Amino acid sequence: MAQLAQQLVEFPLTQGALVTLVPGVRRLVAHNAGPMTGPGTNCYILGQQSLTVIDPGPVDERLLDAIQSAGRVAQILVTHTHRDHSPAAMALSARTGAPVLGALIDDDGHQDKFCQPHQALEDGLWIDGGESPVQAVHTPGHVGNHYCFWHPESGLMFTGDHVMQGATVVIIPPSGDMGAYIRSVQKLKAFPVRYLAPGHGHLMADVNNYLDRLVTHRLARESKVIDALAACPAPATLEQLTPMAYDDVDESLYPVAAFSLWAHLRKLQEDQRVEEYCEGHWLYDKARWSLVTQDKDSPT
Description:
Layout lengths: L1 H9 L8 E4 L2 E5 L12 E5 L3 E5 L6 H9 L2 E6 L9 H10 L3 E3 L16 E2 L5 E2 L6 E5 L8 E5 L4 E5 L17 H10 L7 E4 L8 H24 L7 H8 L8 H17 L4 E4 L2 E3 L2 H12 L3
Parallel strand pairs: 4-5, 5-6, 6-7, 11-12
Antiparallel strand pairs: 1-2, 2-3, 3-4, 8-9, 9-10, 10-11, 13-14
């Protein structure tokens, strides 16, 4: 089993090739490698004859042909409506007549506006249109309409952009929410998952330890955000805080890191640890928030 797990985790990713991960589950990597997508977006195909397709990715005739060559498409599931995951869903549906299942949110400038699911997802919904059922698991955080899909037959949890291999997920407010993200990561620990099947990268084993490390990383970053804010003599902007809170990443990533920084600040505001002094300017008063913490911990 250990040898099998190593093979699954280290299996090379090849764009455009149908690769069997476990019996009844295949992976197809889109031709969209890049700084934000890694080796490309993973499309997963469940079943042998009556197929469930998860995240067909951007519109690409080569990938649509490859999906259809795998069998009859019964249904198409979308983890979320970002443009590297969902655009091909409607194109594949038009080709095959298969329904699209997903969730929509208000456009925040980052959404695939052309995705119109035929059925809305709900947390806990069992979907049984293919050869084996999957369960929709609402995992807001990266974005508010994000869902993972639990496949008990294989023990795989298909995580979209909720959990990625080799990179941390960008949280983009206002739909992205850091507090919700941390809770959603912990939520996955309730499932007996053998492997996490991410939207980008390889399968991941040692699931609960990996999820714990994600939460630890986010909380460590949160501490750096507080330290950066506390070091500023006046209310600080994202532009001022990003180089301080993300001094361990390349400067080219600062514009992306600023989104997650904003999400951290919004969470800290909800936790009553920082204050948005005025629009886009954040304040941390150590003495004030120490008193707030003491008051919250005091017996009533």
